Amino acid sequence: MRNVRERWKHLVETHFNYHESMPVMLLGLKRDLRTVENVHPQEALRIAAEMRCDRYAECSALTGELCAEVFEDIVKMAVETTKQFGGGKTDGPSCRVM
Length: 98
Fold this sequence. Notes:
Radius of gyration: 16 Å
Helix content: 40-55%
Low-confidence stretches: none
Order of helices and strands: HEHHEH
Mean pLDDT: 80
CATH superfamily: P-loop containing nucleotide triphosphate hydrolases
Strand content: 5-15%
CATH class: Alpha Beta
Shape: flat
Number of strands: 2
CATH topology: Rossmann fold
Strand order of the largest sheet: 1-2
CATH architecture: 3-Layer(aba) Sandwich
Distance between the termini: 43 Å
Structural class: mainly alpha
């Protein structure tokens, strides 16, 4: 949590909170270390609120716990943001999945 306060909070406030409609998400990647380092999710939520983040999520990059759910949340945020700004930058269905 110290790294979030000392480094990332300033970065987010300086570069990403200039446009209110751009969502910001705080993502904790070391959920598997919670019991070892005695970090509580309430503390992370409080810091996310201080940073004016729209969402907070956590997963374990090491074990893969909750990674699929986090990716789903990120994609949902991206889709919502794209809809707010009038869609993507391409002109129609030029991309195909094979």
